[in-house]
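Weekly sync, protein design subgroup
Attendees: M.S., D.O., the rotation student, P.L. (late)

Item 1: inverse folding check
M.S. brought a backbone from last month's batch and wanted to see whether the design step gives back something sensible before we order anything. D.O. pointed out we never logged the input encoding, so this time it goes straight into the notes. Structure tokens as presented (213 positions):
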């Protein structure tokens, strides 16, 4: 066997082996799905295996109707929660907050003060460990006293006026950043909602969220 034929055979064998591994991993990852028949990856290329993979799966009876789009969305959502490098900024970009850790929590507040400060019907914010946030740019501040007496110092851009982050004097080990400042529609959904007695009637929170009225 000459060297070129040997190389082609080796490449084909490796492709078939990798395709078999991919099939096995895919089957384990697609919980709630069943195979119509056992796929065989030997005898065709890795690209063919990837392109044809989804035809072997269908929702099992009695399980959640799980489409590939839903499966991918759930995978991306879990991934987003553990992603660490994010940049929040004001509208003009002169004040930024760069994070290097996952958020400790994401919350929504419906109190009237938060409605006023955010300019929206509620405020959404994510709390990060202070040591994982790097602030760049200058900011003006506004101090607000909460119902319990704690003080929060809000930092906003002196040029465009966008609020970016704030620090509570009872939790100085954390920096709370406005979710909207990340301008990222895939940012993790909130897991806590407070002051819901002041929530607008048409607003609905995500299922499974913890409520405080």
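Designed sequence read out in the meeting:
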């Amino acid at each position: 066997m000459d060297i070129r034929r040997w190389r082609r055979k080796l490449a084909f064998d490796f492709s078939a082996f990798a395709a078999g591994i991919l099939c096995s991993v895919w089957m384990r990852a697609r919980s709630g799905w069943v195979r119509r028949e056992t796929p065989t990856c030997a005898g065709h290329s890795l690209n063919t295996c990837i392109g044809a993979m989804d035809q072997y799966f269908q929702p099992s009876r009695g399980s959640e109707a799980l489409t590939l789009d839903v499966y991918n969305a759930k995978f991306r959502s879990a991934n987003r929660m553990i992603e660490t490098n994010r940049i929040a900024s004001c509208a003009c970009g002169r004040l930024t907050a760069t994070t290097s850790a996952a958020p400790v929590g994401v919350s929504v507040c419906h109190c009237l003060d938060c409605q006023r400060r955010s300019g929206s019907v509620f405020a959404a914010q994510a709390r990060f460990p202070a040591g994982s946030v790097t602030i760049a740019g200058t900011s003006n501040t506004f101090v607000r006293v909460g119902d319990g007496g704690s003080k929060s110092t809000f930092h906003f851009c002196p040029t465009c006026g966008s609020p970016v982050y704030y620090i509570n004097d009872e939790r100085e080990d954390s920096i709370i950043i406005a979710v909207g400042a990340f301008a990222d529609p895939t940012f993790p959904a909130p897991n806590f909602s407070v002051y819901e007695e002041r929530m607008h009637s048409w607003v609905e929170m995500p299922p499974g969220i913890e409520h405080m009225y």
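Discussion: The longest strand covers residues 123-129. Residues 22-68, 70-79 have pLDDT under 50 and may be disordered.
Action: P.L. to compare against the previous round before Friday.
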